[in-house]
Amino acid sequence: MDKTEAHRVEDVPVLETWERLKGDPKAVLVDVRTRAEWAFVGVPDLTGIGRDVLLVEWQTFPDSRIAPDFADRLEAALAARGAEKSDEIFFICRSGGRSRMAAEVMAAAGYRHCRNVAEGFEGPIDGDRHRSQIAGWKFAGLDWVQG
Fold first, then answer.
1. Entry pTM
2. How far is 118 from 135, CA to CA, in rounded Å?
3. What is d(CA 137, CA 18) in angstroms, rounded to the nearest whole number?
4. How far apart are CA 29 and CA 61, in angstroms?
5. Taking all residues of the chain, what is their mean pLDDT, rounded to a whole number?
6. Are strands 28-31 and 54-55 parallel, antiparallel or unpaired?
7. Domains of the chain, with CATH numbers?
8. What is the H or E stretch that residue 98 is in?
9. Of 39, 59, 88, 101, whose CB has the highest number of CB atoms within 10 Å?
């Protein structure tokens, strides 16, 4: 396996993410948004499949700096739940940008199956400047809870 292939991150639509999470009890969903987003916008709800979401901030709030200890914190959280570097790990943020960066960092750290939830939790902004109207976890009608 060459270096490029080792760090490849697959973009996965939200409905396919849900199906893959349901089908693989070892798969993990990591929400990399900020604490403020979890509290005020909500978080994906995996209780229907007997699991929870790992909440690990990629950027700090309110200054939006990339958390320098992100990889270490996530690696510890994954180890605590028994995840292995060969397990499928899905990363989600608001619309797919931060989660892609986080997935790439963890792929570079040796996690072999990092996936970016391409549409994110809220999806892109529509013509009226609203989110959750054209794509994303919420738009797809997947379970979520208010933080």
1. 0.92
2. 10
3. 9
4. 21
5. 91
6. parallel
7. 3-142 (3.40.250.10)
8. helix 97-108
9. 88
CB 22 within 8 A of CB 49: yes
Helix or strand run (H / E) with residue 41: helix 35-41
Parallel, antiparallel or unpaired: strands 113-117 and 144-145 = unpaired
The single-letter DSSP state of residue 59 is B
DSSP string, 100-132: HHHHHHHHHTT-SEEEEETTTTT----TTS-SS
Tell me: the pLDDT tens digits for 57-116? 999 877 778 999 999 999 999 999 999 999 999 999 999 999 999 999 999 999 999 999
On the question of pLDDT at 1 being above 80, the answer is: no
What is the rounded distance in angstroms from the CA atom of residue 30 to the CA atom of residue 44?
10
Contact assessment for residue 95 and residue 119, using Cβ atoms and an 8 Å cutoff:
yes
Length of the chain in terms of residues written: 147
Determine the Cα–Cα distance for residues 128 and 15; give it in Å rounded to an integer.
Answer: 24
Question: Do 129 and 88 touch, CB atoms closer than 8 A?
Answer: no
Q: Which two tokens stand for residue 88?
A: 């499928």
Report the alpha-carbon angle 10-108-92, nearest 5.
Answer: 45
